[in-house]
Amino acid sequence: MVAVPALSITPPTQPLRGSVELPGSKSITNRALLLAALSQGTSHLTGALKSDDTRYMATALRQMGVGIEEPTATSFVVTGSGALTVPDAPLFLGNAGTAVRFLTAVATYVPGPVVLDGNAHMQKRPVAPLLAALGELGVDVAAPTGCPPVTVQGTGHLAGGQVTIDAGLSSQYVSAMLMAAGRADAPVEVTLQGTGLDARGYVDLTVSAMRAFGASVQQEGAMSWRVQPTRYTATDLRIEPDASAATYLWAAAVLTDGDIDIGLAPEAFSQPDAKAFEEISRFPHMSPEINGSQMQDAVPTLAVLAAFNATPVRFNGIHNLRVKECDRISAVCTELNRIRSGLAREEGDDLIVNSDPALAGQTLPTRIETYADHRIAMSFALAGLRINGITILDPACVGKTYPGYWDALRSLGVSISDAAS
Ligand SMILES: O=C(O)C1=C[C@@H](OP(=O)(O)O)[C@@H](O)[C@H](O)C1
Ligand SMILES: C=C(OP(=O)(O)O)C(=O)O
After folding, report:
1. In the chain, where the domains are located
2. pTM attached to this predicted model
3. Is the ipTM of this complex over 0.85?
4. b/e per residue, 266-284, with b = 16+ CB within 10 A?
């Protein structure tokens, strides 16, 4: 495939109408691949996402002896023996946070050393709190920089016991520990350090996925979970569409006064980002203050939409957007200001969007930097639906979670063309 350096978007002259088939959920696909790999027997996963993040997960599991076939563009057939084997090379996981965090915990089931690494962006994303928690259960794991590469000296086992996790930077540490716990030798009690959990909905998603594969997990209050050593049972799972992907289409519909059928009502999703629909449906009267802590991946979508809102919007509860694929607070702020100076500002870890409904219809030639971050590319494409002159650099970065994004917009009648470099 020839890399396309940039895409230019022409605002549609009509409301966007039509239907779009969403990709499967990244979060559920990577949980299901992992749990199926730990199960003995064959699991059929349908409606799955095929993208960079799920490819990295599947490839790493194959390197550890798991059989994974891909009979169709949206299915995986996973055959596990209940054990993992020593990979003959480091596991390269790109910038897939789920793959890195989940596999770090599960690598304890390999009877030997495992190195997990990622690209330059992933090498800046913290894993130390997860390592500390694994260490409490006796796992020999090291990451000299506190970020990948990580080396796990697996024993093929995980002892049970009590573990505390500081999930202030990522809920994925909790999800990783819980999923590993289901195959431990004895019960594991996982307790949160601190007061709360941003992105709690992703831990709920983890517990549901574990239960689908036969695990017994009790949530004990808001702060801890007890996982029984049931091991996992192979199962067939239909994966729901990706709610984060849905946010772009919901926003595209309200921005153009259109109507896009994604085949699923907002309330039918179990993923946390579906909460963003409440704010999207209020447009152009979004709330003056939006707490993004429980719908973090939707914040770039909401922030670009907020640029066209009737009144300014402050986003709070979003501090850990700074350790996603890029520093998303800074990236969104910088790129909104590139469209029109003064459109956004940072205040501590809050992002304030100084909304301007008069942006719609203007010509403001802007080349949007995307920082190798799919969500920056996908959300700023929305600005191109109302502003003339928006160009998205490195558009192929959407391949992390939504390779078909540009085609989906084109199918709705958006004109997107290769930009002159
Ligand atoms: O568990 C998951 O599937 C995810 C959890 C969230 O990350 P953090 O827990 O790191 O905030 C989210 O941003 C990510 O895209 C997917
Ligand atoms: C933060 C994200 O991904 P991950 O943490 O899984 O790399 C995302 O998809 O927006």
Report:
1. 6-23+241-418, 26-238
2. 0.98
3. yes
4. beebebbbbbbbebbeebe
